[in-house]
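ingest -> validate -> predict -> emit
validate: passed (alphabet ok, no gaps, 296 aa)
predict: started
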Amino acid sequence: MTKYKPVKKAVFPVAGLGTRFLPATKAIPKEMLAVVDRPLIQYAVDEAREAGIEQMIFVTGRGKTAIVEHFDMAYELETTMKERGKDLSVLNATRATPGDIITVRQQVPMGLGHAIWCARAIVGDEPFAIFLPDELMIAYPGGTGCMKQMVEAYSEVGGNLISVLEVPREDVSSYGVIAPGRAVSETLTEVTGLVEKPPVEEAPSNLIVSGRYILQPEVMRVLEGQEKGAGGEIQLTDAMARMIGTQPFHAATFAGRRFDCGGKTGFVEATLALALERDDIGDEVRAMAERLLGRC
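emit:
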């Protein structure tokens, strides 16, 4: 039994406008775009549930009601499917127990740090996870999800954890980057510093923060007085950097794959990669891809 308070709440900042996917996201939240047949937000919620998280907190904005409706009961759809003898199990993952899904509104787009701060009343005095649904984290076959790996590491070291991945050094200026300290294990490293989107020549490493966090509730009080940082926004990375040295802070290297679905190329890559692995359509998709490549 762990001596640390368990992680049972997760915050999903989903208020973004999704402008990189226009016109598709004019009326549909980008988190509802489907990789094969599951929306991005569904992958994130499934990962949270696998890790034992019970309460999902969506920080939403205008035009995001479809995200909440996705996890609601669709009476007409389910009744029609039942009458026609269709298998309803395909909808199982979309059902939520009342109270397990909570929404708060980020009224003004002021950055990731501000979005997390908007959930402070629901988080309360408990450790909590953060999921960026744009970052699609897929476990290796037979492995466990990113957040479950992090929760297991948290049970050993407590404090704050972030998921990291290694990228080519020339790409670091697009991400939050850690300054690594002492290695605790093959996959766990102390964090001595954090910087958001540094110039390549100033980056402390090529280990980037990859969209999954476990943070202590004190970060909310840091965000309360946080000034704007990179991009003129309130950056979560800046708040976490201020906590280093006051609480344990570690980086966990994810044993799995990451797809950056915040851009078109990464989204197409994720769709193709996961479709190829499907038992029901994998062979057809592979044949189709070979035909298309043969025409290029």
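The radius of gyration is 20 Å.
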